[in-house]
Design brief:
By secondary structure, this protein is mainly alpha-helical. It has eight helices and no strands.
């Protein structure tokens, strides 16, 4: 933090090479991100901007877990589901995980108890808790952040 303001990376660095297949400017929808966290997370550029913001607040694990759960729910193959469930568990859920998320001990214990036989809903409760945390706590700060404000300025100039 310099002079009370977070240093914002060049927006091209945040979005570098991630939107080459888009026909429109990925920041075109940035103004709508303040309508709801669902609008923000429903847009790849919004996800990346929010992730960058959470990284600056040392809470990037929240969006990474939420995105991992979204991908997990799309899995059709049982062996892939088991492998992915165990990866999500070891990366985010288990105590002392490298990116341990902040969930209550009952939810953590329930996931731990059932991880040997995962299903597509294994992480639903934890995902809802993390979503609520992001919506209630992180999202309002994101809207006021220099990261979002600079995206809006750039979108206005486009």
């Amino acid at each position: 933090m310099a002079d009370g303001y977070m240093q914002v990376k060049d927006l091209n660095v945040i979005f570098k090479g991630r939107f080459c297949c888009f026909s429109k400017d990925p920041l075109e929808d940035a103004a709508s991100w303040n309508e709801s966290i669902e609008k923000l997370l429903g847009c790849k550029a919004g996800q990346l901007a929010f992730q960058e913001f959470l990284r600056s607040e040392y809470s990037e694990e929240n969006i990474l877990f939420w995105l991992a759960c979204e991908d997990y729910k799309k899995i059709k193959n049982t062996s892939e589901m088991i492998i992915t469930a165990n990866r999500i568990y070891s990366e985010f859920v288990q105590v002392e995980a490298p990116r341990q998320i902040n969930i209550d001990c009952g939810t953590r214990a329930n996931i731990t108890k059932n991880i040997s036989e995962p299903n597509l809903n294994s992480f639903d409760t934890a995902q809802k808790l993390i979503f609520s945390l992001m919506a209630r706590d992180c999202y309002p700060r994101f809207l006021k952040s220099e990261i979002y404000q600079s995206i809006l300025r750039k979108a206005d100039r486009s």
